[in-house]
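Schema walk-through. Below, the input block comes first and the output block second. Nothing else is stored per chain. Lengths vary across the set, and this one has 531 residues.
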Amino acid sequence: MKRHRSGYFAALLSAAVLSASCVGDLNTTPKSPEEITTEQVYADPDNYINVLAKIYGSLALTGQQGGAGRPDIQGIDEGNSGFLRLLFDLQELPTDEAVFTWSDGSIKDLHRMSWLPTSEYVTSFYYRLYYTISIANEFLRETTEARLTARNIPQERWAEIDAYRNESRFIRAMCYWQLCDAFGSAPYVDENSAVGTSNFPVQYTRQQLFEYVEKEMTDAATRLPDPRTNAYGRVDKASAWMLLAKLYLNAEIYVGQPRYTDCIACCRQIINAGYSLDPVYQHLFLADNQNSPEIIFPIQFDGMKTQSYGGLSFVVNSAIGSGMNPADYGVSGGWNSLRTTSKLVTKFSDPTGATDKRAIFFSQGRSLVVNNIDEPTDGYAVVKYKNKTSTGQDGSNKEFVDIDFPFFRLGDVYLMFAEAVVRGGTGATLGEAVYYVNELRQRAYGDTSGNIAEGDLTLDFLIDERARELYWECTRRTDLIRFGLFTTDRYLWDWKGDVPGGRAVEDKYNLYPIPSSDLVSNPNLKQTPGY
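--- output ---
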């Protein structure tokens, strides 16, 4: 099945910036001639798909126009305020997979693992999630049967609108999963919550957030379209199974209960849903990756339609620096800031990519070890994302890339399945787990020379294999925490804890703090322990 990138529809709904207490009044009057009211939008059922596009668009875009100018959230440079860029910052920069050269605000505190509740990057990720939750809530609030009846929306359109509601619920639950993973506990608001700055949301515990996401995704798995039948870039049943699998894989960390058997069951549903590995690993990260049979749910980027200085435009441009030709990567310039640590590179026995084709680094003129965190040539560049198509053509725009981010893909499913088996989940055999791991390694090596045996499939092997397969795909912080390696001295990397060779840090850094601004605004909130 060939899929075509469509981009996101222009958003017709003018959404107000969230207040510090996480409940914004989105039912606003126009502030300029081009802005329109909620009632105008929802009077026409043809507009509803565009509101849904705004909800999806919040995962890729940063504001109401192009790359910059009308940001969704305040308090940070708009280019830094996108969901994917902030997810990358919080998932990759504190780990062995990424180092940042620039000194923008408190950005280096992430790799040094010394962030505070006032960090603009922690705060902006928190508010980006609540911004997305808020516009999803508003859509759900405005599309009840009572509202549709009052607006004389034809009943033959109700099933279509209900399908949009199910997708909105998925995006909202996905945001709460991110809050559960990053912050542990967080305020809870839904479409029934009172709107206004004087209404303070209650704080859900991690257990409550877990149970909410599990319930929403279990329901979504019955309501969303069958796998691979929805429009490209929109969620379906396989997306719900994937989120559940990730929830269950981390359940022992989140709520102290092993749910590995449930993880295996969800992975098996995805495996049986008709996805297949992309024959070429590199093709997953190129400008025409919308054609990949492996991607389950992407965050869409289009150089002409979804322009943002966040997302994969940030990742591609930031990785390009000294000694590199931007044209080789389909862009017009490099930002000379992102690179990786020696620990990631040395997980490949041959980092040239000649043996394991997943090793996609630029090393010329670079030192392997990051001796100086401020020196952009200390550390290899990661160049697996390229604004080039699989046939070698440039993307549509050299400033904003065409690469879709593979938020959920089958390769991760295979590794989750294997890990859940090794951790004691039932419903699958060790032989099956080895088979799926070897499927990935045969793609990487081009033959069976990299295959492993059952005795090789250990947790130590799997955490390294996840790095080899999934580096710079925004899973690393969560993975290291699950394996007990993130804050401890069991595993060290360049500048962990702000020393050259790395050191252990306080366990409080397994979670991010509730932003100080929200603590001040909402008396119902309590800070993450240790901060």
